[in-house]
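Quick note —
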Amino acid sequence: MLEYEDVDLVVYSGDLITGNNVHNNATAYWKELLLPSSQRGLKFATLFGNHDDLPLQNSVADSTTSRQELYEFEHAIPGSLTQQGPVTVPGVSNYMLKIEDPAHPGEVTPLYFLDTGGGTLPEVITQPHVQWYQNTSNELASNYTVRPGLAYFHIPAPEYLAVMPNSAAELSDRQSSQAAPCFGMAQDGVSNFQDNSTGLITAMARQGDVHATFVGHDHGNDWVCKHSSKVWLGFGRHSGYGGYGGQWAKGARVVVLSSQHANQTYTYVRMEDGSVIDHGYLT
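Predicted structure written out below.
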């Protein structure tokens, strides 16, 4: 897909590898899958999913490469912008990157990354996650003019269930809906994380600096739908050949942020064959 795009950043939204099928050489696979970005001199950022450090299926002792080890390995690869995040927040890959526009000094657009667990961790967003996000958001607002940005995590939030299209007919009807717009592919369910916090999406809506969130996990989805909180909730597109869902063509979701129109984000899916599908404006 990168052959068809001129991108500023590549985001790998978790489950880069199937850790439960890898014995002691996970870093070799990690390096291989990042090569398309690093060899092109592109910046990239990763976060962890529920399979990246999942213990080997046969429970062989010491077979799992931990999140920390994978992060430290990746951090040495040119182009990586991934950060470990604070040790007080569960997981590895809870961090924020800010986009600065030279044409508008003092203005930034945040990109938040959160570790929703799984593998060796519970699949959960906790109060420390939400508190970290709120503190980071407040600090950013105290130093910059903040434009609405994006948040990436692997496992969907419970709010995804509220906007999930229940049929192809409903999805078609909602493409032109003003109240609950929605577009994309919906051929899978939603397997959400446990929300033991005050509510991540609620916090993001209140802070006002996240325009849309994007997840992976459910391979048969690439839909993007507007939640009642006004935050768009979306999926990427299954890009790799691992995991389930071989019947679905591979692609990647592209997000175009505009410095002229902060609340008008354009997104589409670039398919492996170069075609473009499932596109729309997030307004």
